[in-house]
Hints:
Strand order of the largest sheet: 2-1-19-18-17
Radius of gyration: 27 Å
CATH superfamily of the largest domain: DD-peptidase/beta-lactamase superfamily
Number of helices: 15
CATH class of the largest domain: Alpha Beta
CATH architecture of the largest domain: 3-Layer(aba) Sandwich
Structural class: alpha+beta
Number of domains: 2
CATH topology of the largest domain: Beta-lactamase
Helix content: 25-40%
Amino acid sequence: MSNPQALRRVTTVMSVTPSHRISRLSRLLAACTLLASSTCLAGPLDDDVDRILSSLKMGQAKVGISIVDVSSGDTLAAHRSNDALIPASNMKLLSSGAALFTLGPDFVFRTEVLTTAESIIIKGSGDPALGDPELLADATPPLDVDKVIDTLAGAIRKSGPTSLHQIIMDDRVFDRNYVHPSWPVDQLRNWYCAEVSGLNFHTNVISFFLRPSPDGIGRSPQVSIEPSAPWIEIENKAKTIGKGPQRTRLDRLGDDNRFILAGDLSIATQDRVTMHEPAIFFGRLIADRLTTSGTRVTHSQVRLAGTDERFPQTRTIAVISTPISDIVTRSNNDSHNLYAEALCKRVGNHVTKEPGSWENGTAVMRMLLAEKLGPGAASSTTLADGSGMSRLNAVSASTLANWLRVIGNDERVSAVFTPSLATIGTGTLKRRFTDIKIRNEVRAKSGYINGVRCLSGYVIQNDSGKKVAFSVLVNYGDRDEVDREALKLHELVVQAIDRHLNKTSTPKPQIGG
């Protein structure tokens, strides 16, 4: 909001300032322009933000805050809003928005099963939802992953072959750099660091179900896995114990789908561990089901498609499709990293016509930032991956809030994007705002990695539908007390926006008599 009196005072000073001081004053005016959002051109929520920050013990934490009216573009508040900070999972706002702008809100991921005289080709589109157990459980009727594999194997059997020369997994929509080099090595076994493939299955993890041995204390626990894969090797060094602390550790042995279980187990539990080469694993699952039902095929005949390999005279026997709206929702509401990375790589593939990669995917995202927000937003942003697992990402609160503003003003994109964000009590906001009363609708994306707490999204006025976009980024190191204060900061800023909207509430006009 401009300050006419301040501008008049500056004009008066200029009229009486000696010439040798004009250059100094010009520099001051230039600095004033750069800092307008926080000093010269105060927004209506700046005082609220200052009071909130002064009430919290943020220590040496780096904090960036930007609050923007979506319709007018006016900055309502800003605090170090141009500082580039690690965004954690707020990166998903960029990757999912870029996918909707690039691929379109009606885009559909398609996984195709093709056949030739002697071969089966499974052609991926990068769909991260294929065989996702959570989505299958929500289906009507509910499905399990083994049912999906049996259905695909059944479709192949019905197509006619009694023996197969090979099963070819065509994952070339993406490159074969499955793991980002900046992801933490000690966490690569965890589901949120799953490999990213052009042919994903079961979110590229194996679920392990561990139960104490029925033969008693000291015996090896029982282990079952999903999807069922009889060839998987599990070195079971764990033992069943009675009452006592349960300490088990399940790890994958190198770049191979062999696993080791160690420690003590007293009660039933489950774990998810990432698999290697998801496309090959998926192909072997199909081969196993076909072999069981009498179609001759060996696991050694499952391979990846060659770089320039072509498949003439194929026939489509099955197609599995997933709308992009489902992908974006799982990425943003549930903060599932694989989904965001698949969107990032698919954007790169779509624009370059080359295998999708982190390099071309983030290049497209940067191009969109320049197009939608200007070259300054692109040049000040560092993009490494699509999910925010990488600590190399850096983006400002202003860029994120204005990215949300642009999305909010695009009716088709916003219709898919906005509902994909969690509301209070759902998704990643399930346990947030428990002590804060909010009258209006909140749609937001949280973000967390060690030393980083972020929240960005919208507060939407219930009466008019008016939207305010906000981004609150906190980078604080490893101090637990600052982590708690960062969470309070998020919620108090949202509460301030909510109060502002309540004061300016304009009811929708009533139609009818």
